[in-house]
Design brief:
The structure is a homodimer of 252-residue chains. With 252 residues, chain A is of the alpha/beta class. In chain A, 39% of the residues lie in helices and 17% in strands. In chain A, the strands form 3 sheets. In chain A, strands 1-8-2-7 form a 4-stranded parallel beta sheet, with helices on both faces. In chain A, 54% of the residues are buried.
Chain lengths: 252, 252
């Protein structure tokens, strides 16, 4: 038993981790054949994980509302958010609570959001081996997957319309710290977010009250969503892209 | 006397400060009519401040080596650095120590570097009211200038070939903290770098030993340069752009 634990620590310490703080910086990184974790904590990737956890079969990220509405004809639920608002004419917005109480059980969902869904597409185009949805809700399961898979890791923060944001950076720091050590890291952004996370970890919710998107979502009465999205390890699934749809990955 | 101090604190707390973590993110910010501080701590903007402090009349940032060599015919000293190396055929590289002991007294210098000089040009094109050279060496003088001038501030990190780096981010945090308060800040990047600076401030040199560019410059034997560039308040000048050249600004 002790032997197994030691082995995991050694693998983790060797993992190369880079952090992309904004989609506008993705071109500086080589994501090819790496594990890319797309991070849109408030709320897209947290909602994607929640939907799968509550029985959705798949979430198809689409880049615009037209694509989502076309898929409605094929039986998909449609979900669309822009600037924090649910769009009229769609079944859902971008709130994790819309995925609970059987609402998405055995359903497929076509989802388009302001930031997160575009990044899933960008990571795919960049040639990622796996594109995972990042969320605090299943952070330990994601960490275990990445450590076991051993590939280099790119943590890809969705930000807000290309601007760097606190909540995605914080999550990147939390995950980077779980899967690697500072000594193994050569990327300054990764070092930055690890220190940021350690500054904030005692009370992430309180820390984020100063952030731009937290204030934006508070004005839109999404405070309950945010409190939920900052909970850690509520589920042990890993959600990643298969054939263009986010699904529950089989974890060995 | 007490009254004056109180007034300064009140003005400082109202200053709007944004931080551009990489040149690739500058387009997200409106720098027009703002005070922009270009930050290339290791070493361009530290060297520019040092040269002016040691009697250089002006440093003209140019974007390529050809432009620098043309200015040689007009009596300029030429300084060129790429990837940390001084280029052959130029009078100087990018080291602050080359500016000491009378070497630049009453001289003008045409300077081109990997990152910093390009950012001075970019800030000018973006319509900045003032483009200042950022360095720890005169950080308090810069802070006093910004507080007195009252304009909104953009702290523009040069990074390394568009990648975010630790040393420029740290300086941005140090300066942001001197001129504003967290309550007045709406930019997540600014909040991030302030916390990063507070994490590192006890020993910035030691903190930066983990950074990518520190390691790069160490390999190139520029350790002495780095130790110098991290010293605070060695001079009380403010260096900014006038008619395309970095000169000592008159401070009221």
């Amino acid at each position: 038993m002790i032997k197994i634990e030691l082995k995991i620590i050694i693998i983790a310490s060797m993992l190369k981790v880079e952090v992309v703080l904004s989609p506008a910086l993705l071109h500086l990184f080589d994501a090819k054949n790496k594990n890319v974790v797309v991070i849109d904590i408030l709320r897209a990737t947290s909602t994607i994980c929640t939907a799968i956890h509550h029985g959705a079969l798949a979430i198809k990220p689409v880049n615009n509302t037209d694509e989502a509405l076309i898929l409605k004809g094929s039986g998909y639920l449609t979900a669309a958010e822009r600037d924090g608002h649910k769009l009229d004419g769609f079944d859902m917005g971008n709130s994790p609570f819309e995925c609970m109480n059987g609402a998405v059980l055995n359903k497929k969902i076509a989802l388009t959001t302001t930031n997160g869904t575009k990044c899933i597409t960008a990571a795919t185009i960049a040639g990622a081996a796996n594109v995972l949805a990042g969320s605090f809700l299943n952070i330990s399961a994601i960490a275990q997957f990445l450590i076991a898979d051993k590939r280099d890791v790119v943590l890809f923060c969705a930000g807000w319309k290309d601007s760097v944001n606190l909540e995605d950076s914080l999550f990147a720091g939390a995950l980077a710290q779980k899967i690697s050590t500072k000594e193994a890291i050569e990327c300054d952004s990764t070092l930055m977010v690890i220190d940021l996370y350690n500054r904030a970890k005692a009370n992430i919710g309180q820390y984020l009250e100063q952030s731009s998107h937290y204030k934006r979502l508070s004005r839109l009465h999404h405070r309950e969503d945010m409190e939920y999205c900052l909970k850690s390890d509520e589920m042990d699934i890993v959600v990643g892209l298969k054939s263009g749809e986010m699904v529950k990955l089989q974890v060995n």
